[in-house]
Amino acid sequence: MVSSYIGRLSDDILLMIFKLVREEDQAASDDYLQKENTIIGRRWDDWGDGLDELVELDGDYEQWRLELADRLFAGNITDDPPPRSALLQATRVCEHWHSLVSQTPSMWTVLEISFREGDAALEHARTFLQRSGSCLIQITILWDDPAWIAPVYENLVERSGGALPPQSREEIMAGVHLSSVIQELHAHVHHWHEFTLRTTSIAHTYQALSLMSRPSVHPACGLEKLHPQSIHNSRHATHFIGEPSLFPGSAPPIRDLLLFGITWAWPSSSMLSSNLTNLRIRYDIHMNDYNTNSRTGPEAEMLSQFLGALINLRTLALEVNLRSFNTHTIKLPRLHSLAIKSRTIDCWGTGFLHNVQMPDLRILTLCVTAEDPDDSIEYFLDDLVNLTDSEDPLELDELHLFDFAQHVDAEFLHRLYTQMSKVKTLTLGPGEDYDNIVLATALLPTPSSLLDTPCPKNCWVDKPVEFIVFDNARAGLPASILL
Q: How far apart are CA 2 and CA 245, in angstroms?
């Protein structure tokens, strides 16, 4: 009865139903990726240290893999495959449905391929490309098995210059399959609209980036989102002298670029245009300390050249460790939000804030990740306060300082708060509860506070997450205090 009713539906109605099914597939895929991000991740993305801290194993990689398996098991971390596509299942109901969906290119614009498909991944890519026709496509490649993460041991890095441990047979075969898929897709790079790659093996990362750096018959003329990610791994992808850059000969109109665990030297400066509005870089130069073959020039100078042409950049997130940032002036006239997370923020953060002109900056987020930050952090904070009282002061709506609690006192808060007259939201944390409460009372009209400090309208001390948020309305007493 049901089949006879469905058989009477017009093709237009069926296509409307299939479109809804495809949207449900996309929502399920997005949920899956979000859950995958939390498997090993931490607040504002880990640096791979959580799986790299077993230094007592002294470079015993096999023992490390056993420890990793124990951790995943103890944490009830399951390696679930991506959700099955309901649209593909619908094509198997009958020949008419298969023909209708297969011959409608607009139904084939979102491609997701996982390493779990094995050698079937190549056929999956070929079939998809045939059916998508000339449509622009969104591509997500998931080669992110946690078992492929190779830890970095300091003593081995010093002795071998960062040599990798032997790959397992499974990792080698997965690399073969990934290379086949990338080559097939790269032949159709002119149809790419979005491209996301997630890898846990540094070898797979290099394989993919190298293949994407080969000349192509067609330019990447439709690519607006590029997110190559080497995740949960403290080994990051460097770039060497003489290596080609990504998409040689192309100037793709990229608007959203994420380089996660990958140096900013991979894309050439000529590749990026004024279209770029969102940029996030997460890269640790530690591996370059023992490598003399990296691209010439200090990392800060390379980063300066990289940023110099991005005149329409709106959001910038830098999770990097530099030694300094004493470069020429950089103009980012439309930058609205800047986030910096670094173990060495005291070494280069001040130079960055001084040398980069950001007249439209309204949101500033700073996070120090050093385990034992020294007194130089306090000098950085002093410079930050001085910038708020300079000839060209920062006029922020929001200021978020993470992991600075032990270096912030009431006097600093007083100077910062009175000089930044437009700040509506100030975040300090996480830190010890007592330290946060002391800072909170510094803004209240009590004998222990700074009486001449303007009092915010609302003051929250959110102890469960150990953040202090002050909503600065410059009027009246606090409406509420949540302790």
A: 56
CB 384 within 8 A of CB 401: no
Please state the domain extents for the chain. Answer: 41-78+109-296, 373-483
Pairing of strands 425-429, 467-471: antiparallel
What are residue 220's phi and psi, to 5 degrees? -85, 70
Top-confidence range, 222-226, 282-286, 476-480: 222-226
Q: Quick one: angle between helices 299-308 and 345-355, nearest 10?
A: 30
pLDDT, tens digit, 9 for 90 and up, residues 104-122: 888 888 898 989 889 999 9
The pTM assigned to this predicted structure is 0.78
CA angle at residue 273 from 272 to 277, to 5 degrees? 95
Strands 481-482 and 458-462: parallel
What are the structure tokens assigned to 453, written together? Answer: 């400090």
222, 190 contact by CB (below 8 A): yes
- The whole-angstrom separation of Cα 417 and Cα 427 is 12
**What residues contact 348, with CB distance under 8 A and at least 6 apart?**
300, 322, 323, 324, 325, 342
* Cα(124)–Cα(301) distance, integer angstroms: 43
**Residue 22 has what pLDDT?**
76
3-state SS class at 331 = strand
Closest-CA residue to 428 (of 418, 444, 446, 416): 416
